[in-house]
Design goal:
Elements (H helix, E strand, L loop, with lengths): L14 H17 L10 H24 L5 H31 L5 H23 L8
Length: about 140
């Protein structure tokens, strides 16, 4: 256990990974439930959403591996973050399309996934906004 009181703990700056993981668990929970997503929607709706998630996660990882010590590396890092945001927006649109097109997918059933995805996109936008050149030690 940490010696830091809970009320004094600050976010580490990597909470976008935790939220992405929570979102993935929720996405797999709802897409794996045949009462929500019927089997006939597996290849038309579920697989593209899972692929969009993996694309978003891969761009997050690529952005994290870029240490911005100069303008070029900062630009590349911001581009990766922007691509992660775009993949997340695509995923949000895909989830929204499923709510409109599949009668068993209701807003109540996918609400938690939508909340987590919106939180993830907010964190990624903040990460992009706060990206700056780091001084090497």
């Amino acid at each position: 256990m940490s010696n830091v009181y809970t009320r004094n703990r600050q976010p580490t700056g990597r909470e976008y990974y935790d939220v992405a993981t929570d979102f993935y668990i929720e996405l797999r929970r709802i897409t794996g439930n045949t009462n929500i997503f019927p089997k006939r929607t597996l290849y038309t709706d579920v697989v593209p959403m899972i692929n969009s998630y993996h694309e978003m996660r891969n761009y997050m990882t690529k952005a994290e591996t870029r240490f911005p010590v100069d303008e070029y590396s900062l630009k590349v890092r911001k581009e990766y973050i922007q691509r992660a945001i775009e993949a997340g927006e695509t995923l949000f649109t895909q989830l929204q399309d499923c709510v409109w097109a599949i009668e068993s997918v209701t807003p109540d059933r996918v609400e938690q996934a939508g909340i987590l995805l919106a939180q993830e996109l907010k964190l990624l936008r903040g990460l992009k906004k706060n990206a700056k050149i780091q001084k090497s030690k």
